[in-house]
Amino acid sequence: MSLLNDKRDDARSVSVEPSVIVGVVDHFMRRQEGQKRVIGALVGKLDAETGSVTVTSSFPVPHAEKENGEVAIGKDFKTKMGSFHARHNAGAIVGWYATSCEDGSLISEHSCLIHDFFSAECECPVHVVVDTALGSDQLNVRAFTSQPLTVASGNGNNDDEEEEVYAAEFRPIACAVVATDGDERAVLGALAKGATSIDGSIGALERNLTKLLALIDTASAYVDDVAAERRLPDAKVGRQIYDLVARMPRVKPEMFSASFDKNMQDLLAISYLSKIVQTQLALGSFLQ
Fold first, then answer.
1. CATH architecture of structural domain 2-178
2. What is the pTM assigned to this prediction?
3. Per-residue model confidence as pLDDT tens digits over 58-75
């Protein structure tokens, strides 16, 4: 059983790099059909004195949540990926991430079991939740710690009473997504504005390109009319068109075609590799 306590734990904090959030969103977008949320391991560093955690990378962990409250987690996959990250990245597993539930809640009945699973990997793991439900048209990121809630059991004699754990209480902690350069801030800003704003940006780009094509057609028609002596030339307009043409790089059609084909091949290769990784994750979840 998992409980969410709104009382904040100010003793700990979490700093997350933007690339981690992008990876979580990408994992969610590539999830299996019918899967409501995804989870994964967080890799980074723990400050033993302050208890603060810096998350520098992450990797997905296949899992399945059943209606009876049980959770199946790809333990072998997590172990292999953890070893790979330990060899190639500075840091260790410091917690786990999840996306929000289908109803928009951040903590579910399965969170306690998953947190216990990662507690065997590291002491006092942190739990980062990325709100992909976009209930407020914002991509919110929250962090939590967990502590067990116990009740005394026994025959009434204080010496014989024992404490039994009946639930896990998740408390929010300070969480900051830290961008180190301009590119990361731009990506982070696009994610923070939500899917609606991203779709709007694509629409604005389409409108700008349509306007640009219309301006090119207007300039081309003007040059044709002047060349055919259908209208008088304007020296000022001519200089402006000349300056614009001079700024354009001169690329031979065959070179442009070769460059375009090469970029298309790279894009297809990346898409093919991503499909292979997605297939391996799906097979791993079935083999557990």
1. 3-Layer(aba) Sandwich (3.40)
2. 0.60
3. 899 999 888 777 888 988
